Amino acid sequence: MAPRQTVAEVEKGYRLPNPSSSGHRCPDDLYNLMLKCWDARPENRPTFRSLNDVLEHWSSHTETQYLDN
């Protein structure tokens, strides 16, 4: 895809699909968080503080899952 076409697609709202569908592991919660960061309206995007909180919680939760196995 050419750079101009990429910009046009992103401006129209296109986002890459969740890579989980191609065999890579990306939890839906993490993918949806990424989508929120791309919201066209800045007031709808998460703040850095809220991103940090969510990612720290997610990180500690997934770390616990690995330790439990």
Automatic annotation (TrEMBL):
One GO molecular-function entry: transmembrane receptor protein tyrosine kinase activity
GO biological process: cell surface receptor protein tyrosine kinase signaling pathway
InterPro entries: Kinase-like_dom_sf, RTK, Ser-Thr/Tyr_kinase_cat_dom
Domain Serine-threonine/tyrosine-protein kinase catalytic: 2-54
SUPFAM superfamilies, alphabetized: Protein kinase-like (PK-like) (SSF56112)
Region (Disordered): 1-22
Record's GO cellular component terms: plasma membrane; receptor complex
Source organism, top-level taxon: Eukaryota
Protein name: Pkinase_Tyr domain-containing protein
Organism for this UniProt entry: Echinostoma caproni
